Amino acid sequence: MSRLYVDRVALGLTAAVLASCGGAPPPPPPPPPVHVVATPVVAPALPADPLGPRPTVATPAPFEPPKPVVYAGPNGMTVWLIERHTLPFVAVTVSVPTGSSSDPKGKGGVADSAADMMDEGAGTRGAIELSRAVDTLGATIGTGAGIDETSVSLTVLKKNLTPAFAILGDVVSRPRFGAEDWKRVVELRQNELRERASEPDETARVVARVAMFGPDHPYGHPVDGTLESSRRISLADAKAFYRAAWRPDRAVVVAVGDVTRDELSSLLSSAFGGWTLPATPAPPIVTPAPPAGPFPRAVLVDRPDAPQSVIALVRPGVSASDPATPALSRVNAALGGSFTSRLNQDLREEHGWSYGAHSRVSAPRGVGMITAGASVVTDKTIDALKAMLSDVETYSAKGLTDEEVEKTRSQARADLVSAYEGAGTVAGRLATDAMLGLPADYEATASIRRDTATKEMLDRLAAQYFDPTHAMVVVVGPRAKLEGPLGAMGFSQLEIRDANGELVKR
């Protein structure tokens, strides 16, 4: 027997004896604890920015549009000129400060009718010949009247400026006013006025003006008149209006684009040298008094079966020369003057009652109107009106948020820069300033006033001009569905008017 075998037997016997005695070998000792020391992770250093530290962006300075050069033209005309030689393009607007506010009583639309006739044949050309001549030059000539002015505009490439300017001179100083052309223009106008009466938005605009100013106020009728007033206007009326309004001593020529002062002066002498000054004194420029009131609290225009209603809040506003006008445009922008404005976000985006809600500030020579409105689903007319009143009341009471203050500043600056991109828009804007009696540097000074307006100033204007307790409510929609609910809202003294703003007997 080997030694290894004996040792194994002995170990087995020993284990058996211990087991029989109830004992067991002690367990092996636990391993010693392992202490792990964490090694800090160091992030790799970022490479230096090759462009350097990010600069701090300062608030941009207000955009100050260029001031036109102003000088005297032939026969008493006044000239405003801005030279821009970056593109071979010229825009010219010739205006007189007489518009629909000078229409004879009961003949609303005379100024607009006379303007329509000015390019229906002029000088040696009939209506068709004149239109062809303009088209051949690649130019455009347009005529139109506003509340306070009437204008003729020209846009043309520099290479065709001389012949186009000659046509402009004919349209301004030698219009034909032919009988056959008048008959055609009147027929087209009356068709447009019939169509206007079927448009709820246009109806609201007409009715609001009549109800706010009254039918006898110079601003109390639409520029294009009504179907009834158009039937009272004769060709002789249009000719008389033209003779009284279009005088060289009242005309302002605004030219913007690729033309020098010497070139423009030569063109003016050639085109307008024969436009003589009348012997009679010029009629006074109309600056109407503010609307006197009292205004109706609410007006309803019946539109049976209308799928949409129009709701509007209307109140007196400001004149163009009011120092508050530039800053008021920012107040308006936050309420309803942009897509992200409060009214549009509530009525369109939040509730889906309208395709778009808006507010506007008109600032003519006299006191204009401030309006807020929307076309809404007819079944939601009352809900939408309540929401609009609530939005405007909150805005008037609490003013603008800090975000709205900055947003309206940026928006106003961007809008003005955009307006000055095109020569035609600049010429039209400056022509309007001239007709409203504003100085040649108005756009620059207004830009600074608008840009530097503080939150306190904007809040004060919001409270002063957007308080709904001073606004008139205008609703265009089905009377049968809306008269009762409007009365329940507190508009018990509801006026019923037709599409021309005439009172309807109840």
List descriptors:
about 500 residues, alpha+beta, Cytochrome Bc1 Complex, Chain A, domain 1, 2 domains, 6-stranded mixed β-sheet, 17 helices, globular, disordered N terminus
Structural class: alpha+beta
Helix content: 40-55%
What profile does the largest beta sheet have? 6 strands, mixed
Strand content: 15-25%
The number of E-state strands comes to 12
Number of helices: 17
Tally of distinct domains: 2
Strand order of the largest sheet: 1-2-6-3-5-4
Given the C-alpha coordinates, what overall shape results? globular
The low-confidence runs, each spanning 5 or more residues with pLDDT under 50, are 1-24
CATH architecture term of the largest domain = 2-Layer Sandwich
What does this structure look like?
There is one protein chain. By secondary structure, this protein is α+β, with helices and mostly antiparallel strands. It folds into two domains: 69-272, Metalloenzyme, LuxS/M16 peptidase-like (Cytochrome Bc1 Complex, Chain A, domain 1, 2-Layer Sandwich); 298-497, Cytochrome Bc1 Complex, Chain A, domain 1 (2-Layer Sandwich). The chain contains 17 helices and twelve strands. The strands form two sheets. The protein has a six-stranded mixed beta sheet, sandwiched between helices. The longest helix is centred in the middle third of the chain and has 19 residues, at 179-197. The termini are far apart.
What is the topology?
Layout: H1 3-20, E1 69-72, E2 78-83, E3 89-96, H2 110-118, H3 127-136, E4 140-145, E5 150-157, H4 161-173, H5 179-197, H6 200-213, H7 227-230, H8 235-245, E6 252-257, H9 261-272, E7 298-302, E8 308-316, H10 325-335, H11 342-350, E9 354-361, E10 369-377, H12 381-398, H13 402-419, H14 423-435, H15 442-452, H16 455-465, E11 472-477, H17 479-488, E12 494-497
Parallel strand pairs: 2-6, 7-11, 7-12
Antiparallel strand pairs: 1-2, 3-5, 3-6, 4-5, 8-10, 8-11, 9-10
